[in-house]
């Protein structure tokens, strides 16, 4: 089982915070178990039972490396209403969830954003629509009834759907449903980009980060493919505290997570999941997604 494919970076963020917290046995932590929740939307499209097994295996292995006594209890919620109820009933201390779920249910969620992972010096993802230079495609309207490919991770589906819908409205292009229904979803960004490069597909929608990585391997991609549309930077997931969680626990987690890169095991985890570091959450990180949600109402 390839755990790196099963678990998103936001899970590692929460996991490592819980583990380093376990190194400090103080009176401010009344229990040996910290209760974590994960919305299923923070996972890529995998079997949730497999994801649960991967989480347990990874937790056990890192705990051994760090000689940690505190064992986090983890629960995966398959819908946001279950998480809302668990937070309200104080059955969850900390949770990882998507920005879209948070903003759509902000008034119901007893949670405050706390931490986020930074990758390639960015706190989120920038999406692009790629076409071949020789395709003759210059606008969104020309993509209707064309072959369009998108990687099928949950975060991509949610944000891309809203972003594309707003693009069609902003550019006064009709036929969005017909356009979206024709999209082909694939497993990997390369499976979306390469068919456009070889002119076997008309367009693809991927993260700019994925495109840059492939250009490093094959510079010809950068010469033959053109960016038709580019999104702002969107935060996908984040990690938050239950609002009424003990303030000393919150402070300890923030301090430990900020220094995660200085722990040997922490460095390994950050490298495995291609994170540069973990930083405190800033409210402005949500602005671009919030604008999308507002326009989508």
Summarize it:
By secondary structure, the protein is α/β, with parallel strands linked by helices.
Q: What does this protein structure show overall?
A:
The structure is a single chain. 43% of the residues lie in helices and 21% in strands. The chain folds into two domains: 3-121 and 235-283, Periplasmic binding protein-like II (D-Maltodextrin-Binding Protein, domain 2), CATH 3.40.190.10; 125-233, Periplasmic binding protein-like II (D-Maltodextrin-Binding Protein, domain 2, 3-Layer(aba) Sandwich), CATH 3.40.190.10. The strands form two sheets. The protein has a six-stranded mixed β-sheet. The protein is globular, with a radius of gyration of 20 Å. By secondary structure, the protein is an alpha/beta fold.
Helix content: 40-55%
CATH H-tier superfamily of the largest domain? Periplasmic binding protein-like II
What overall form do the CA principal axes indicate?
globular
Which second-level CATH architecture of the largest domain applies? 3-Layer(aba) Sandwich
What's the end-to-end separation, in Å? 40 Å
Low-confidence stretches: 1-7, 21-32, 65-69
Q: How many strand elements?
A: 11
Tags for this entry?
5-stranded mixed β-sheet, D-Maltodextrin-Binding Protein, domain 2, 297 residues, globular, alpha/beta, 11 strands, 43% helix, disordered N terminus, 13 helices
């Amino acid at each position: 089982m390839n755990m790196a494919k099963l678990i998103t970076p936001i899970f590692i963020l929460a996991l490592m915070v819980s583990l380093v917290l376990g190194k400090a046995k103080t009176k401010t932590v009344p229990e040996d178990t910290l209760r974590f929740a994960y919305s299923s939307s923070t996972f890529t499209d995998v079997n949730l039972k497999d994801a649960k097994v991967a989480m347990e295996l990874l937790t056990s292995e890192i705990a051994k490396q760090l000689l940690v006594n505190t064992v986090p209890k983890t629960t995966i919620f398959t819908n946001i209403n279950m998480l809302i109820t668990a937070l309200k009933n104080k059955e969850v201390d900390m949770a990882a969830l998507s920005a879209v779920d948070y903003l759509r249910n902000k008034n119901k969620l007893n949670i405050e954003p706390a931490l986020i992972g930074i990758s390639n010096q960015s706190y989120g993802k920038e999406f692009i629509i790629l076409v071949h230079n020789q395709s003759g495609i210059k606008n969104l309207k020309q993509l209707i009834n064309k072959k369009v490919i998108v990687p099928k991770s949950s975060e991509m589906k949610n944000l891309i759907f809203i972003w594309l819908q707003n693009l069609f409205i902003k550019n006064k292009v009709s036929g969005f449903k017909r356009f979206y229904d024709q999209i082909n979803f694939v497993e990997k960004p390369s499976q979306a980009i390469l068919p456009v490069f070889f002119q076997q597909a008309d367009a693809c929608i991927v993260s700019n980060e994925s495109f840059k990585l492939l250009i490093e391997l094959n510079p010809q991609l950068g010469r033959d493919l053109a960016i038709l549309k580019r999104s702002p930077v969107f935060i996908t997931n984040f990690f938050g505290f239950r609002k009424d969680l003990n303030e000393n626990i919150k402070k300890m987690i923030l301090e430990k997570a900020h220094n995660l890169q200085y722990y040997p095991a922490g460095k390994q985890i950050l490298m495995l999941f291609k994170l540069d570091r973990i930083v405190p959450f800033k409210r402005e990180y949500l602005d671009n997604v919030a604008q999308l949600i507002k326009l989508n109402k």
